[in-house]
Amino acid sequence: MYVVTFYSYKGGVGRSMALVNVGYQLASAGRTVLLVDFDLEAPGLPTFNLQRPPRLPNGIVDYVHEYLATGEAPSVADYTYKSESFENGGAIWVMPAGKSDEHYSSKFQNINWQDLYEHHDGFLLFEDLKEQWRTSIQPDYVLVDSRTGHTDIAGICTRQLPDAVCILFFPNDQNLSGLKKIVDDIRYERRVVRKTAEHDVTLHFVVSNVPTLDDEDRIVATRLRSFGEQLKYKSLAAQIHHYDSLALINQLVFCKDRPNSYLANEYATLADTIRRSNFEDRDTALEALRHMVRGIRSPMQSPAEQVVLSDERLRNIATTFPRDGEISFWLALAWRFSGDPEAAFLLFDKAIENGYASREVYFERGLLRRSRREVGAAIEDFWSVLRASDLPVNAREVLLSVQALLNLNPEVVEQVASSWSVVNLPADDVIQLATRLNDSEPGLALNKLVLTRVVTQTPPGVDALYEARQSLGLTLIGLGSFEEAIACLNPKALPIAALEQSAAFNIAMAEWGATGKINKELFGHVVETDTKPKRPGMGPNYSQCLAIAYWAMGDKERAAMNLADARRIAKATASRDFSAWRYLKVDSLEFDRDLDEMERLLEGQSILPRFISRIATEKKHNAVN
Fold it and tell me: What is the pLDDT of residue 192?
């Protein structure tokens, strides 16, 4: 339950209208809202265009009189009524100021609020009232319409009851002077009197009834800057502009009756701002957790974009939503990245127990288990990622799970390839997966299975088909299936002149592996099309391929130049790159060793690329066995 008081120092700013519209907006978003009419001198919430019973029940004034007469707090159920219900579960309840009859005025005037607090435990009475709201109506939001000015009732509404105060004002000197004391009192109450700065009342400042006129002299802007400086706020929660319409006479609820009007949109903005300060609201808590995790994962965010939740705030969210699996998951990530893996581990388990058994939960728990050296349990989680059938499939989670499983057990290639998540990866993601897995024989074996499936199932003319064929061709060369690779890379038997440079190079390398001979026509086409500019950030593979092609054509000088370029780029990037000497992705040290062997080739030594010599060695080994 989140209590928000709507207060204005002076009348005429549309405070009650703002409260009712914000309440309607919150209820239409599925929240249960209680509207409390504490403007006892000039009550009016039941007069707005909301449903009400034929006879209004008693209200706050009657509630206090009953308490003074009996010494016991009466049941709040007798002083409230349900006004509106929404299909999504939202509802509006109302606690009026009192029964509108000839006795109301005298009852109100007979209440001595100071005496109530000093001699009749008034503070405890309203604490009990809050607890009854919580247990009887179970509202998500309580919106309290407060009396204007400096009064005892205003103090109850702005200092005792609320978690937040929405302060509406027209930007003139009278409002500024009157609001200073109210704002100071609110801040002083929690920080000094109750010493609970962590739970300080949130203040939302709303300029209201702003003229819809050109402000060429920046009069309003200047006044608002002065308000911000003197009331010590950084930004407004909303701006409510003046609205010329006779509909105001009928007290329409604009969010209900005219939802597309600019006034309704401004009230919706205020409702959203209020929700963002309430961490008991599921949407607010979830978005804050997501934002916090994104900020930790992407530290390049500006300070204004970052959200940092205190440990106490995280614990409060966990307490508020003990059986919400999705929130448990994001809490787990927040704790994990904040340096408490044990808390994260328990919350991952809790997320799954509470029904949030999605692919991402198993993936994140698998990473945590692997970091804790719980290898068997980590494998179970990574298998759960691949077997999960929820959509969409997250390519990153699948890729890292596949890599982890192949590293931990290279014998599971076929099971991985037939898993639900891998089978249902879009073609583009499969190609991306293949470029990350071409660093080992198990990875190549898996690539062959998944890329063959894409090539077989993709209709002709689809862009992904060409990319899949080229990627499959590289995989087949790496596996030593040279004839298959040639057929895959040039399925239409195009003439050499029609081949793209990369396809011509890979076909030439496959023919070298298959026949042991250098196809100078193919390598010649590669060097003839050497027009690609070497841009900053380009990896060393392109220069490496050109070095091989120029060597094949007998141009040792250009081959050496490209070899030197490849070595320089590899040293500068120090990353894992695809080596055409092995047809595998290797680290910078292994890439440098490949360049050393290529240098010996340029010097005239009889040496074969690793992808060819490896296959020859394997054939000899198999023949001996």
Answer: 59
3-state secondary structure (DSSP) of residue 35: strand
CA triple 438-402-616, angle to 5 deg: 35
- Residues β-bridged to residue 143: 4, 35
Cβ neighbours around 568 below 10 Å, total = 12
Q: For residue 76, how far is the Cα from the chain centroid?
A: 40
- Is 444 within 8 Å of 477 (Cβ atoms)? no
Q: Find the length of the chain.
A: 625
Q: Which residues contact 466 (CB under 8 A, 6 or more apart)?
A: none
Query: Quick one: DSSP state of residue 200?
Result: P
Q: What is the largest CA-CA distance in the chain?
A: 113
pLDDT in tens, 185-223: 888 876 655 555 445 789 999 999 888 777 766 888 888
Angle between helices 359-371 and 395-408 (to 10 degrees): 40
Find where tokens 């929700």 sit.
Answer: 275
pLDDT tens-digit series, residues 505-531: 999 999 999 999 999 999 999 999 987
474-505 pLDDT tens trace: 999 999 999 999 999 999 889 999 999 999 99
What would the two tokens of residue 81 be?
Answer: 């009524």
The arithmetic mean of pLDDT across residues 596-603, rounded, is 95
Contacts of 542 (CB under 8 A, 6+ apart): 532, 534
For the CA atoms of the chain, what is the radius of gyration? 36
| pTM of structure | 0.75
Assigned token pair, 90: 């939202």
Which residue has tokens 């198999």? Answer: 622
Query: What is the C-alpha to C-alpha distance for residues 24 and 19, in angstroms, rounded to an integer?
Result: 9
In terms of DSSP H, where are the helices of 59-142?
A: 60-70, 104-109, 113-119, 122-132
